[in-house]
Inverse folding.
């Protein structure tokens, strides 16, 4: 296990896993909640996330940009972009709005022109796969080619199956077992 990955796992365990009674986006009840936004916006964790995600996606050929549905994907894509520069790897990032803008250029995908370009859709954590799939829909409308979906923490929920059933490769950096958690 890489040093960055083990450090990130420890930070998630100690600072981003909350125990109690929670309702997930899916409406499902849970006894713990993984609040990755707390860490993806933290100066200690963001560089680690970038390094771990670069390790996860580094073997996917021809990818020029990473991003996903705002807001969960934004800090992940930014961390990948910045850590990529530090490694001499070039990834731009993009943001997919939940809805197209109703003014200006009316864009739903912000950032570089992605027509005909290979991209990876990223997310902090995914339960149902809804956010990456919504991002994919908008990206395909602008002509992007989806190389994979990559998430920091996989919740061992329907996300993987839904994304793979839709025809996309699904990767994750950290699983529940890495965090000492059981699926729920």
């Amino acid at each position: 296990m890489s040093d960055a990955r083990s450090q990130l796992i420890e930070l998630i365990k100690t600072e981003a896993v909350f125990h109690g009674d929670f309702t997930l986006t899916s409406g499902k009840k849970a006894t713990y909640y993984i609040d990755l936004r707390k860490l993806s916006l933290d100066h200690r964790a963001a560089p680690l996330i970038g390094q771990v995600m670069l390790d996860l996606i580094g073997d996917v050929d021809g990818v020029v940009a990473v991003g996903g549905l705002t807001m969960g994907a934004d800090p992940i894509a930014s961390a990948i972009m910045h850590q990529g520069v530090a490694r001499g790897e070039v990834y731009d990032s993009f943001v997919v709005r939940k809805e197209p803008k109703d003014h200006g250029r009316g864009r739903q995908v912000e950032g570089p022109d992605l027509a005909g370009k290979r991209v990876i859709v990223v997310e902090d954590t995914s339960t149902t796969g809804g956010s990456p799939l919504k991002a994919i829909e908008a990206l395909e409308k602008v002509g992007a080619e989806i190389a994979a979906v990559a998430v920091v923490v996989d919740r061992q929920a329907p996300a993987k199956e839904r994304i793979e059933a839709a025809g996309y490769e699904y990767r994750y950096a950290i699983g529940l077992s890495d965090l000492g958690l059981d699926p729920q």
